[in-house]
Amino acid sequence: MSRDAAFDEKAREALGILLENFWILRDRQPEEYAMIRDREAALKRFVRDKLGYRLIVHRHFAKLEKIPARPEPWMGMETFEHPRDYAMFCCLLAHMENVAVDEPFLLSALCEELKVLYPGEFPMDWENYEHRKSLVRVVKTAVRLGILTEVDGDTAAFQQNEQAEVLYEVPVAARYFMRTFPKDLTRFSSGEAILQAEAAAEEDSSLRRRHRVYRQLLLSPAVYREEMEEADFLYLLRFRHRLEEDFAEYLGFRLEIYRNTALLSAPEARARLTLFPDSRAICDIALQMGEETRRRLAAGEVRVEADGTIRLTPVEWEQWVAALKESRGAGWSKQYRTALVKQTAAELLALLKEWKMATVDPESGMIRLYPLLGRLAGKYPADFDPAGRDIKKEREERS
């Protein structure tokens, strides 16, 4: 694809908006919708040719159907906490299919319908606090997505009182929430089967490979050689300059490729994007762990596997976190200064797993630290006192 003169800064901003949101509803975000509509042709060319994605610009919404090359743990609903939430959400969608657009219905009617539709081994019991919490999470998510409108009442009240009543309506956007699939969903046995069917719809194998590579880079914190087909990684190496140009030109990202790892980085922070690190204190600790990992490697204290990872037992991981707290904990927030090492180690590991810097073997419990952890490292400035005093600040105050 030749460089598109119409792909200007506004088009890049519009593409970023589409990538960071499930969809853009015209009545909620009119300016963003108008920006996407104005750059529709240029956007469609890029997402079709490089990603194999479908951009839908409807009079009520704009939506980029983001199909991953492979599923990632973070791709679920961030507000959901239990598999029951997902099942209940599907039941809610089924219920709304039978409700006319803008037709009001009550929470009590929804509760009765969910009892019938829910496929779980144990039925819904609205006297059960956890079941009510699940429904509140599901309904609030539907309202946030714009596929359900809360007309009167407060859904949150149902969490404490099963007799609470709320009035809802189904907006027109709800009819376009589900995308079309290659065949009836009941004929698929797993999510992987759906992705395979999507890929099979593309007859050109070279085109499928291009789309897979672009999608993996765009939708993952890092791509490791072990999780790609070897031909895909070779494609990445062979066409790296073209990929570098595309990601820089159309998204403003920088492509980095190492022996076993490839990733995209943003040269500067952008509020709209989900970036690492963010403002959470645990991210600061993660950066320090990256620096500590580099130090241990340089000192020959750990062995690197052929795939570039470091393997630790759970006990060794806690020892690493304890040593980090001992050497750098004076600058941590109070929450982590006073927390047990075990708690901090668990929270830090969860963060690293979320960003593909670590995994845990479900059978052995062994922890694998990935190269991306060492790519991002942070340490205190030279004028920071380990005792907890900021020397530079004290000097400025005295002067």
Keywords:
399 residues; mainly alpha; Arc Repressor Mutant, subunit A; 4 domains; three-stranded antiparallel beta sheet; 47% helix; disordered C terminus
Describe the protein's architecture and organization.
By secondary structure, the chain is mainly alpha-helical. It folds into 4 domains: 9-65; 75-176, Arc Repressor Mutant, subunit A, CATH 1.10.10; 206-265; 281-375, Arc Repressor Mutant, subunit A. The protein contains 16 helices and 12 strands. It has a 3-stranded antiparallel beta sheet with strand order 1-3-2, covered by helices on one side. Strands 4-6-5 form a 3-stranded antiparallel beta sheet. Helix 11 packs across helix 14 (341-354) and helix 12 (314-328) packs across helix 14. Mean pLDDT is 88; it is low at 388-399. Pfam families: DUF2398. InterPro entries: CHP02678.
